[in-house]
């Protein structure tokens, strides 16, 4: 019965999160483009389905100097290059999360790299290609755009960063596969005080083979693409199609080394005992070595050491702590090691299945105080009757 409920919830979430932009993969070409057009085709007045552009923008084709997830086409944003598309946020207020691919023209002798800036009415964020966390020459990023609803129209703008360098010797960003997904309000389950302890709610995963969705630092719980978790450093949001995931469909791999990680906070009863359960392991991405994860909850902290051979395994761990109160108690997972694979790609420990519960001692105290309340109410009632 319980399993069926979870199944139904998942289906509902999947339907709720289906939201599309037009020509989000840029496979519908500009009106004046044809198969014989050059691989780097400057746009000059013609229109590209779904999008408006401004500044120096090229319609590009994967090949020698450019690699893209599924080959095909994308846009290169040069000096003041900008594309935008408006979508309508129908229905109740939802969080809008973005997933996109960032690439660049290869083998260019550039003296500066321009970043990409993604903005919407409530947010603006900058992304730079690092090529440190995967073997491809493109990266997939996740981002929290904002929350909207009630038919509001939202203009999503993607532009190259304005930099102080010669345009000719600058490597400009390439954008492809822009995907939107939505998440409604999170509800606390019966058996976990943390609403997204399993990391199942986050930006959409691409439907092509990928090295994970990178999430940059985000100090705000409500503005994080990884719902209800802040991010320090860079973490990779990984799915079960491309990686070993301990539980469910998604997990987090801490990739940027020492002090990177994820944190959450929860209002807990001061002085009460709580039990924190979680899974630590590796993503089956050849990340081998000793991985140390520091787990802190309230004023308790403990280090956990995993001997990883990089072939995909995870173990359950637990620790107990006392609720801090009156302000929310913080719970964090932090890497104490920086690890690189044999091919130089940075990698790290995988966290999943974080379950927070009141300790049984606390529960019996709750039951006791509930009994006392009932008893007191009965006594008062009796008192009233007399
Ligand atoms: C294809 O586009 C090029 C310009 O990029 C143009 O010169 C050529 O005539 C076009 N060919 C066809 C068959 O439309
Ligand atoms: C763009 O088109 C305009 C006319 O529509 C033309 O004057 C201009 O030279 C073109 N620029 C390039 C770079 O082709
Ligand atoms: C792009 O933004 C401009 C305003 O800056 C707007 O007029 C235009 O409709 C937008 N384009 C799309 C496709 O939404
Ligand atoms: C890169 O640029 C420098 C300076 O502009 C030049 O000397 C060098 O030959 C260039 N290398 C390649 C591979 O183009
Ligand atoms: C540009 O970015 C690439 C990929 O991250 C890097 O290898 C290169 O050193 C950067 N170039 C400059 C001038 O910063
Ligand atoms: C965990 O390990 C780090 C690095 O070795 C150390 O700085 C920290 O004090 C340790 N924390 C605990 C709780 O042992
Ligand atoms: C890697 O670890 C897993 C589980 O810890 C184990 O089953 C497997 O045999 C190990 N593989 C190698 C090559 O050591
Ligand atoms: C790890 O990946 C390999 C393929 O790369 C696959 O055969 C294997 O089953 C995976 N292991 C786990 C534990 O998922
Ligand atoms: Ca494409
Ligand atoms: Ca999970």
UniProtKB/TrEMBL annotation:
GO annotations of cellular component type: extracellular region
DUF642 domain segment(s): 20-180, 192-357
Entry annotated with the keyword Manganese: no
InterPro entries: DGR2-like_dom, Pectin_Meth_Modulator
Keywords: Glycoprotein, Secreted, Signal
Stored Gene3D superfamilies: Galactose-binding domain-like
UniProt key word Heme: no
Protein's cellular compartments: Cell envelope; Secreted
Residues annotated as signal peptide: 1-18
Pfam families: DUF642 (PF04862)
Chief localisation class: other
Protein name: DUF642 domain-containing protein
Originating organism: Salvia divinorum (Maria pastora)
